Amino acid sequence: MGYERSDETHMDERHRIRIVGRHRDSLKRYGYGPNALYWSSREIQEIRFRILSEIGIESGDSVLDVGCGFGDFLGWSAAQGLSIDYTGIDLSPDLLEVAIERHPGSVFRCCDLVDFCHAHADFFDWVILSGALNEQLGDAGDYARRVITLMWSRSLKGTAFNLLDARHAPTRACWDLQSHDPATIQDFVERLTPDHRLVDGYLANDFTIYLRRE
User: Fold this and answer.
1) Residue 91 in contact with residue 110, Cβ under 8 Å?
2) pTM of the full predicted structure?
3) For residue 82, is it within any domain?
4) What is the predicted pLDDT for the residue at 5?
5) CB 124 within 8 A of CB 64
6) Please, are residues 149 and 3 in contact by the beta-carbon 8 Å criterion?
C-alpha cells in the first residue's frame, strides 16, 4: 500500500522544528531518562507501556513504535520476557542517537510516520504510540487522526495508542499539551474498525485505545 506525499498529511514544519528543538534542549538538561521525554517518572512511563502491551503483544511479534524516543518500550518489553521484532521511528535525531546506542542492532528511523509510510512498504503485527500525540498543534486534533489512520493501515493484528484525557484537562496546566475527548476518539476509530476498545482508569489524565483486526 503506498501513500502520496502531501503537505496536508504532514505536521506543520514550524511544529516539527519546535518539537525537535524541545527534545534537544531537554536531552541536554536531563540526559537519558523519562524527564528528557517529558514523562514525570519512569513508573508513569511504564504504566503506559504495560497498558499498550496488553492489547496482545507476544514474543515474536513485529512492532512499530511511533514516536519511540529512546526506544524504551523495547527495553521494557525485554524486561517482561517479551522478545519482539522492533522498529522505532521519531522526529528527533538527538533522541534516536541515544536509542541506537542503547539498542544496537534494532531498527530506528528519523522521520514522521507519513514519511515512513511513503518510503517503506512494511507492515507490522502491532503499531503502537505512547505520548507522541500530546504536543499542542492548534489543529483540533486533525494531525492525530491522520496518524491514527496511518498506524491502523500498517498493522496486521492491531494498533494501540494513548492520549491525554480532555475530561481532566481543566484540572491541570496544559496550555502546551493536546488533550482529547475519549468519546470523540471512539467515534472516529469506529470508522476504521468496529473492533475497538477504550481503556482508562489506570492514570487520572490518560486513556488508551485498542484497535484489532478480526
Assistant:
1) yes
2) 0.91
3) yes
4) 36
5) yes
6) no
User: What would the mean pLDDT of 27-48 be, rounded to a whole number?
Assistant: 92
Strand partners, 135: 177
Range 38-46 average pLDDT: 91
Mean pLDDT of 36-65: 95
For residues 190 and 117, give the distance between their C-alpha atoms in angstroms, rounded to a whole number: 22
- Burial letters 199-210, b for 16+ CB under 10 A, else e: bbeebebbbbbb
Band of residue 175 on the pLDDT scale cut at 50, 70, 90: low
Residue 135 inside a domain? The answer is yes
- Across residues 184-197, what is the average pLDDT? 97
Residue with cell 482508562: 200
The CATH number of the domain holding residue 77 is: 3.40.50.150
Give the three cell numbers for residue 29.
538538561
Phi, psi (5° rounding) for residue 196?
A: -135, 160
Q: Which three cell numbers stand for residue 81?
A: 520476557
Residue whose grid cell is 491514527:
148
Sign for the pseudo-dihedral over CA of 121, 97, 179, 55: positive
Rg of the chain over Cα atoms, rounded to whole angstroms, equals 16
CB 166 within 8 A of CB 207: no
pLDDT tens digits, residue range 121-139? 899 999 999 999 988 888 8
Please tell me the total count of domains within the chain: 1
